[in-house]
Amino acid sequence: MIIRVGEPGDDPLLIKHYLALWESYGTPSEDYSLDAECSIQSFLDEGRWRLGLATFIAEVDGAVAGTSSCQLQVSPYPNVIKPELRKLGYIWHVFVLPEFKRRGLGRALTQAAIDHLRTMGCTTAVLNASDAGEPLYASIGFERGKEMRLKL
Prior knowledge:
This is N-acetyltransferase domain-containing protein. The chain is an alpha+beta fold.
């Protein structure tokens, strides 16, 4: 297994994996917006330009097996804490193809993202875990947060 840094030329793969991640949650393809792929591409471009976005590709015997992405987290409220004390990084889009699961790829992709966020001076890494991913992230040291939601 190798983990390499993704390049803009890998964007079609990242887009494909991001949509596959939503499919793995049970989201039917008809629920996607008509411009889903363009929206993802714009998000990648903006993240690279403004938020230090990095992507990682896992390969096993020359075959792509998974991907992950990370960037600075944009707060929905003013951040009044000094960045050296509170600079959040966000890990999103950790995806491993089904045939490559349970081989440590999710852990390696997540660790690559954590390492990148550290180099950016982040003090905390944040992610949203699926039910399937939660044990992995807990084993790395992630703690459950206190987010609450209300369906409207």
